[in-house]
């Protein structure tokens, strides 16, 4: 299967998607069919903060048309924050969309996780992952605005300062103290801060769960019709 990624939002997460997909397919001895188009992170942030879903869906639609022209079989938004308008994008999309949010609830249930603490954009935290966690409780930091802004600052710069890293580690600990079984990196650029470090509590990177599904789709171990949003008859 030819995967189509909408990248650039932010650049660091795009690189991680590419690296992990490449490594996984290489380990399986299979070729990776992939096209990446670049979205403007500043436009996304502007539309996200204004909750202008129609405007961002229009941006995505144009990018998805380019992915379709390149031969992609599906489209992937490489940003959980960028999923804020996915429902508006689906009916306009020329390709089926593979959500990074949908697989999470099932994963948490399989792992026996009852409550997760969320780190990511303000919208992701405030809506508890867009209200899509049906079987898992979710909590957010007390200062959603401050935490969300710190995340955006990091994502747009594609670098994480020591101060930002310490801040996110402390935010994660506060979520554990508030009753979370694990902290979920619900912002695909948070790998800049955590990067596999042992922080003293369980950390789950939502990006890894998304990657796992994409690898299964790319290798035929998962059915596109079962996991896609939108028209799979394209």
Written account of the structure:
It is a single chain. Strands 5-4-6-7 form a 4-stranded parallel beta sheet. Strands 2-1-3 form a 3-stranded parallel beta sheet, with helices on both faces. The longest helix is centred in the first third of the chain and has 17 residues, at 11-27. The chain has helices spanning 11-27, 41-49, 53-69, 86-89, 102-110, 122-126, 144-157, 162-177, 191-194, 206-218, 224-227; strands spanning 2-7, 33-38, 74-77, 115-119, 137-139, 182-185, 203-205. Helices cover 48% and strands 13% of the residues. The chain contains 11 helices and 7 strands. Strand 6, helix 9 and strand 7 (203-205) form a beta-alpha-beta unit. It is α/β, with parallel strands linked by helices and 234 residues long.
Strand content: 5-15%
Largest sheet geometry: 4 strands, parallel
Tell me the helix content: 40-55%
Mean pLDDT: 95
Uncertain spans, ≥5 residues at pLDDT below 50?
none
How are the strands ordered across the major sheet? 5-4-6-7
Count of individual beta strands: 7
Summarize the structure.
The chain has eleven helices and seven strands. 48% of the residues lie in helices and 13% in strands.
